[in-house]
Design brief:
With about 400 residues, this protein is mostly helical. It has helices at about 1-25, 30-35, 45-65, 70-90, 95-125, 130-155, 160-180, 190-195, 205-235, 240-245, 245-270, 270-290, 295-310, 310-325, 330-355, 360, 365-370.
């Protein structure tokens, strides 16, 4: 049983890693994609907004599909679709082909994100201790690799399909092989389901709403860094163009570091304490960025942002699984939608405030939103009245077989 769990954990971590690399390869080459297809500046936001909107549709669809199909099967087949859609983005030659490829990418990535986190939450419950942050650390590591490969492609002026094909050729078959060892867990025991949040096993959106808000605020903060850090350093803090590319790389590295050690903090101090600390550190990061006197001070602020924001999303998924143990898949699918809501809202919000007011002032808005997380920190607490000791209670799981029935 231990070997099955370990293989399941390793294969799922590789899936997170693969998705991190795939997504980074797409978003970091947006200028090259725009040039390849001749997409105008006016039309580009439409394409960029369509991906998270369709991903939300994919996540909603996944909530219904997992009633009939195991999450592991959805993950097994949605991940290749995402990678092939990425290759389609690089290989097409007409705007219509780009639209089809991005539509497939968006729908599949919604199912992929939802099913991946469903398996992570159920596997964490089976382990009986925090491991969710380690999966998202693998995602961050994949993102660093993908961004680095994208830089190589841009530096050597490689065609998009030339940059994408080797990655897809290596990661796609590896992900398919690894998917043989995904571990699906059985539903929570009846006594846990009946007691969970007084819901009788269903998902009550009013109870899930605090976590949905935290997810939205976290992604508003994340999209602020990914979309505006370079412009902020160059235009507001007067850095060179080369130095302006550094903050996001630093943010990604500190996100990896924070997630790599975050599970130990959750085990030692509890999820609520880690979320509170993360929110405070992230808010301090935004404050430093807003008040920075120079580029290096600004980069120190972005470093704090990586260390603070990195814990919020994984712990929000984990908290949803604890709140609705008998319906964790449905809760995670609904919660995952607010990932895309935050992504859609964050960048336009900061841009509009920056143009109408100032970019320094705009940085204070995500700071305030992240601080609101403190109000909802109680939603992350592990119930110790039933489980004791601040740890998650293990549940009976289908650990005797992987997703392929072995």
């Amino acid at each position: 049983m231990t070997d099955v769990l370990r293989r399941g954990r390793a294969s799922l971590a590789f899936s997170f890693f693969t998705q991190g690399a795939t997504f980074a390869l797409l978003v970091t080459r947006i200028p090259a994609i725009q040039d390849r297809y001749g997409v105008s500046d006016a039309l580009l936001p439409v394409f960029l907004a369509a991906v998270p909107i369709l991903a939300g549709v994919g996540s909603v669809t996944t909530e219904q599909l997992v009633k009939r199909v195991r999450p592991s099967r959805l993950l097994r087949w949605s991940q290749p679709v995402v990678m092939l859609a990425l290759l389609g983005v690089g290989a097409g030659g007409h705007v219509a082909e780009l639209a089809v490829a991005l539509a497939a990418f968006g729908l599949a990535v919604g199912a992929l994100d939802a099913s991946m986190n469903m398996l992570g939450v159920s596997l964490q419950r089976t382990y009986g201790r925090s491991i969710m942050l380690s999966f998202h650390a693998a995602y961050s590591l994949g993102g660093i690799l993908g961004a680095s490969l994208a830089w190589v492609g841009a530096h050597w002026h490689l065609a998009l399909w030339v940059s994408y094909l080797p990655v897809v050729a290596v990661l796609l078959p590896a992900a398919l092989v690894g998917s043989r060892w995904y571990v699906d867990s059985e539903p929570a025991p009846a006594e846990d389901t009946a007691d969970a949040a007084g819901t009788g096993g269903g998902v009550v959106f009013k109870l899930l709403l605090p976590l949905c808000l935290v997810m939205t605020f976290a992604y508003i903060g994340d999209s602020t860094v990914s979309n505006w850090s370079a412009k902020y350093l160059k235009d507001v803090l007067g850095s060179s163009e080369q130095l302006a590319t550094v903050p996001y790389n630093v943010y990604m590295v500190t996100t990896l570091v924070g997630r790599a050690i975050g599970d130990f903090g959750v085990r030692r101090f509890g999820a609520a304490a880690v979320v509170r600390l993360g929110a405070l550190v992230a808010a301090a990061g935004f404050a430093v960025v807003a008040g920075a006197s120079g580029a290096w001070v600004g980069m120190a602020g972005f470093t704090l942002l990586g260390l603070g924001l990195c814990v919020l999303v994984p712990q929000t998924f984990a908290a949803a699984g604890r709140l609705f143990p008998g319906a964790s898949d449905a809760a995670i699918a609904r919660l995952n939608i607010f990932n895309y809501v935050g992504f859609l809202v964050g960048s336009p919000l900061v841009g509009a405030l920056g143009d109408a007011w100032s970019y320094r002032g705009a940085m204070l808005v995500p700071m305030v939103l992240v601080l609101v997380t403190l109000v909802y920190a109680r939603s992350f607490a592990v119930r110790t009245d039933r489980y004791g000791g601040g740890h998650e209670r293990p549940r009976t799981a289908d650990v005797g077989r992987g997703s392929n029935g072995l």
